Amino acid sequence: MDLLHTQLAALQQQLSFVATDAIDWKFYVQACSWGVTLFESYLLLRQYPLYSKTEPPAVLAAHFDKEVFRKSQLYGKDKAQFSLITGLLKQAIDSAMLQYGFYAWAWDVGGKIIGRFGYGSEYEITQSLAFTAVLFLISSLPGIPLSAYQTFVLEEKHGFNKTTPSLFVTDMLKGWVLAFAIGGPFLSAFLYVTKWAGDRFVPWLMALLFSFQIIMVIIFPTIIQPLFNKLSPLPVGDLRSRTEALAAKLKFPLKYLYEIDGSKRSSHSNAYFFGLPWSKHIVIFDTLIKESKPEEVEAVLAHELGHWYHMHPTKLLCISQAHIFTILALFPAFLHAPQFLRAFDFSKTVSARPPTIVAFLLFQMILTPMEAVVGIALNFVSRQFEWEADRFACELQDRLNASEMKDMGDRLGRALITLHVKNLSTVWVDWLYSAYHHSHPTLTERLKALETFQAKRDGNGKKEL
Ligand SMILES: [Zn+2]
User: Fold this and answer.
1) Cβ–Cβ < 8 Å for 243, 282
2) Domains and their CATH numbers in the chain
3) Any idea which positions bind Zn(2+) (predicted)?
4) Which of 204, 88, 69 shows the shortest CA–CA distance to 146?
5) Is 258 helix (H, G, I), strand (E, B) or coil?
């Protein structure tokens, strides 16, 4: 522990310029956030002409009829236009808020609110909660019409929307209540630990954040998800027995097997698993069950279990811990720097003893370029995991010595094609756009890889014979 703190102190030494040098942090944040937004717009402009292609890629030609392909291109085009406009609009709003001292204003408003209840500025955690609530509510406002447009105009036009206006409103209100119910105590604990541990908060906050992640894993399926969706046990039948048999053969600790009414909101479909190491839930969208045959859904689950077998969620958790550690390790230099807050229009009084939440929020903005790079790296890792899970599904026949699974690659391919066709997913993708945005390889890439895995496996099989 002491070695850790010595290293962290050395890092702070390197960053001591934050407290001493007069740096125009506001300009830096503006430049970085506009840089990222303009880069994202550039990516959309690279991707956009691909929506005008009239034929699908050769591998997919047999699976898309002309009309479906035309629809998927139109859907892609509409979504790209929407992303371009919303991306620029959101950035313009954020930029204006930053430029005109919105954060300093929100801190003062938070102070006034708690003042009405008789609390002064010495109650930093209370003021931080009020500040966050003000910030959250005001910055959510521009997103509401955009999200309504996306649901009721864009998705509706392409036949995906199943959300009613009342469901939209209740979802939003539930989301807010949850954000306050979970966010409030979490934020209080975060600020309390930071104050309590003083300069040695890094390992303590790591422990807090880790516990929070574990608590979320437990309460998400049991408390949160049922607020939004109905989960019902998967009915007895072909799919259920296939899933249970597959889980048993792989020694996957399947505790609950659910069908989720994803179709309540949208016709997009999927399947996933989660839970603690000894107790897992598998959830399959009703839309997936409706659109694919049981043996194809089984292949999708084989892919999902590939993620589990190769411990992808655990690996991602470790990566996220390293990411959190880096952020926390850099943070103290910004926490103890009044000049840093002054650059964002905070008054001399507030800046003299920087509130942790304010410093942390502004510090997050400083990290924008780093976060963009981390995002690209994470997508890269995630795409590798997807290949690995696809490969796992193809090779199940050998792993389980089960010849009935020899066509798992084909079945997975068919399920992926159905998912893509039904979701009208984009099939022509610019490589740079994909590298930046996509956590999954494109359908064309996956089908090609499935063929290669299968061919390699058949080749090996022959050699053994
Ligand atoms: Zn996957």
Assistant:
1) yes
2) 1-62+299-465 (no CATH), 229-291 (3.30.2010.10)
3) 303, 307, 386
4) 88
5) strand
CB 430 within 8 A of CB 47: yes
CA of 388 to the centre of ligand 1 (A): 9
- Ligand 1 center to residue 247 CA distance, Å? 17
Q: Write down the catalytic residue from 259, 291, 304, 395.
A: 304
Q: Is residue 394 helix, strand or coil? A: helix
What's the CA gap between 163 and 156, in Å, rounded?
A: 9
Low-confidence spans in the chain with pLDDT less than 70:
1, 263-269, 460-465
Q: Using only the alpha carbons of the chain, give its radius of gyration.
A: 25
In single-letter form, the type of residue at position 120 comes to G
| pLDDT, position 363 | 94
Does the annotation list 307 as a binding residue? yes
CB 412 within 8 A of CB 302: yes
Spatial distance between the Cα atoms of 35 and 42, rounded to a whole number of angstroms:
10
Tokens of 144: 């509401």
| Strands 231-233 vs 279-285: parallel, antiparallel or unpaired | unpaired
* Catalytic status, residue 304: yes
E strand intervals along 194-313:
231-233, 254-260, 271-276, 279-285
Q: Is 312 annotated as a binding residue?
A: no
158: annotated binding-site residue?
no
**Per-residue pLDDT tens digits for 250-260:** 999 999 899 99
Active-site residue flag, 390: yes
pLDDT at 465: 44
